[in-house]
Design goal:
Length: 526
């Protein structure tokens, strides 16, 4: 596998670009989060998404009720059993999102250079001159000259259904705006975004809490995506709330969507388990020429902290088209080269016409980009950033990656109970897959016995290069050599069956023996 890797600094033969990519059991090291919705909720379509490379299913509660999402989740569980592909579940909150209230759902035509009034009176009917909104504090938050964007939910930027407004004046509770471009608002859900303005609403709304309390707790969600995270306190508050519901293992991913979140990024990163760079709203809040700078800076900080970075909005045009644009294909590759752990697909799979094809092509682009990712430079920069003295576990993890690269190992096998050791290995971005063998632990609450491990396995499905498998719970991670050899044989057999490990390959193994962490190199026979 290592020999397929090139460096961008090295000359690439033009003929090699035209060589077809070799099929692999692991389509790409970069993970894909797919949003399940109206166009992607049948068992058949979800099975196709899993086979194409989706490893995390996102449930977006801005659209649909709990019953709708529960039916989709049951279909996902059936698809997982049918395909034998593990998949994690992410609940995405609505957050303090401003919306246009159009009860009739009739199309609304807006003409450029005319005026429209935004009113908090939701009883009024939406017209070309009057748009009711679900927030009473807008008139206190904006001033003359401010920019307001209204677009279809998960807008792709290609629709004629997005409109820019400029605030002309504030009259009491109402805001009078000049329409900057002609558009027709059609559809059930329209969101309103005010550029670089603080909206005085809680990050975790009452509706969000109810969804987490019912649907989230009942289904033991793996990830909570916290929409419009603006402060570290937002993450702390969410963690306190979900802990009271018994969701102690659920990881919180802070979704950075505006300048306020950008300003407090470092503090948010310390509190969150991962970051979602929500480029749709960021693209409105930031000047266009600054969006890529934030992406590169944010991904780098996540990489150095060893926390997953997820990038959104990469192939919007595939919502309606079978192929991405040239710019989108390059954008996916650049997200991978920046160091992103995962690509999140929204409208492309939620309401898109080609959800399976979209996941497949994003995976193929990611795999090609990974071949020219400069692992050597990345490794050196990470070691330099971490500095000395390293912690014991980080020192062993980084050494395991170095050894694997030096001996051109085909895979790294890591025995883990918490998943921490495997994530540390993945932090150093080895060129080969990391097979994370999660060994369950037996726990009791004095009423019943339960095994841990399923959460840890699924939560690695959003980390670049990590591929989990659950071991037999009779073998603890620190058990005897005989037990470890038994699990190692199962892991090697899994690698051979998937085509990742071949005769005479070298394999690096990371495991605990007693109190010591051990790295060993195995050379396989026929």
């Amino acid at each position: 596998m290592h020999s397929n890797h090139l460096l961008l600094e090295e000359p690439i033969r033009m003929a090699s670009i035209l060589e077809p990519s070799k099929p692999s059991f692991f389509p790409a090291m970069t993970k894909i989060v797919g949003t399940l919705g109206p166009k992607s909720r049948s068992v058949e379509i979800i099975s196709g998404c899993l086979k194409a490379g989706m490893s995390v299913a996102r449930f977006d509660f801005s659209l649909g009720d709990t019953q709708f999402h529960q039916e989709t989740l049951e279909n996902l569980r059936t698809a997982v059993k049918n395909t034998k592909k593990l998949c994690a579940v992410m609940l995405d909150t609505g957050g303090p999102e401003l919306q246009v209230v159009n009860k009739t759902e009739h199309p609304i035509s807006l003409e450029a250079d005319t005026l429209v009034i935004l009113t908090p009176d939701q009883e009024k009917e939406a017209t070309s001159n009057l748009l009711p909104i679900n927030f009473s504090g807008l008139s206190k938050a904006v001033k003359k000259g401010d920019t307001i964007f209204i677009g279809q939910y998960l807008f792709t930027g290609n629709e004629t259904t997005s409109v820019w407004l400029e605030v002309s004046e504030v009259k009491g509770d109402e805001v009078v705006c000049l329409i900057k471009n002609s558009a027709t608002l059609s559809g059930s859900l329209y969101t309103l975004h005010v550029s670089q303005i603080h909206i005085d609403l809680p990050t975790l709304t009452d509706k969000d809490k109810e969804v987490i309390r019912t649907w989230g707790a009942r289904n033991n969600i793996d990830f909570l995506s916290l929409a419009i995270t603006r402060h570290a306190e937002d993450v702390r508050h969410a963690r306190e709330f979900i802990s009271k519901l018994g969701l102690h293992q659920t990881q919180i991913f802070a979704k950075i969507e505006n300048v306020e979140g950008l300003t407090h990024f470092d503090e948010i990163l310390k509190e969150a388990d991962g970051i979602i760079i929500s480029r749709g709203n960021l693209g409105i809040d930031l000047p266009p020429e600054k969006v890529f700078l934030f992406q590169k800076a944010a991904v780098y900080k996540c990489n150095m902290a060893g926390k997953p970075a997820v990038v959104t909005r990469v192939v919007d045009s595939m919502t309606d088209n079978l192929r991405p644009t040239r710019a989108e294909a390059t954008d996916v590759a650049n997200a991978v080269l920046d160091g992103s752990d995962a690509i999140l697909l929204g409208a492309e799979t939620l309401r898109g016409l080609y959800p399976v094809e979209t996941i497949s092509i994003v995976g193929k682009i990611s795999a090609e980009a990974e071949k020219v990712f400069n692992h050597d430079l990345y490794y050196k920069n990470t070691v330099k950033y971490v500095g000395e003295p390293m912690t014991h576990l980080e020192s062993i993890a980084s050494s395991a990656v170095r050894a694997a690269i030096k001996v051109k190992a085909s895979v790294i096998i890591c025995f883990t109970s918490s998943g921490r050791a495997a994530r540390l290995i993945a932090k150093y971005r080895p060129t080969m897959p990391v097979l994370s063998v999660v060994i369950p632990r037996l726990q009791t609450n004095q009423l019943c016995w339960t095994f841990t491990g399923a959460f840890e396995a699924r939560q690695s499905l959003i980390v670049r290069g990590l591929f989990p498998m659950l071991a037999d719970p009779r073998h603890p991670a620190e058990s005897t050599n005989a037990a470890n050899e038994s699990i190692l044989k199962v892991a090697l057999d899994h690698g051979k069956a998937s085509g990742v490990i071949k005769p005479h390959d070298r394999v690096v193994v990371f495991q605990k023996v007693g109190d010591a962490s051990v790295v060993k190199i195995i050379e396989l026979e026929d």
